[in-house]
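Subject: Sanity check before I submit

Could someone independently write out the structure tokens for this chain? I want to compare against mine line by line before I put it in a report. The sequence has 206 residues.
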Amino acid sequence: MPEEQSTLDRILCSAKQEFMEKGFLNASLRSIVKNAGVTTGAFYRYYDSKEALFAALVDEPARYVLDLFNHTVDDFEKLPGEVQTKRMTEISGNCMNQMLDYVYDHFDAFKLLIQRAEGTSYADFIHQLVVREVDSTYVYMRTLEDMGYEVAPLNKNLIHIIASGLFTAIFEAVVHDMPKEEAKEYLSQLQRFNSAGWSELLNVRF
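---
Independent answer below. Compare away.
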């Protein structure tokens, strides 16, 4: 392995261990550099800050999941209303399963994102998913109204709390270190629970 790559790998390995143990806020850049066996000067050849180092470990996985969800919602909203309702469970289930597969292929990165990111711009990772989910819920409710459904007004705080609860619950699989097969079963049951609740609130069969 070229020395340049070896140095970078040691820095990233040391950083992941430090962030895992202490979280971003309490992690020591001095300890990371020392445990990597490099000088501070060598470190700054690669990264200009502790947050840049954290980003190197989590940015690509975070963006992948956010993009996956956003693209799924974008494509869903282009469908006719009748098709949206008919395929709601299928499409959301496929998205969740793709998300789960990716998360488990990059499990350490998501441990950092979900449990160790306080103090970084990534601390709002789940919130970004929630915001899009809330927006898409309002879009779907307007679609139902355009189709002639009588949609009862819902408390805006309830919509946000349901969305927040859903995505927090999804990533509880990471928090609790669930084996992947258990997480799949858990996610399937969670989706059924969520769909049944929305079916009741909107008076629509999915």
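---
OP: Matches mine. For the report I'm noting this point. The mean pLDDT is 95.
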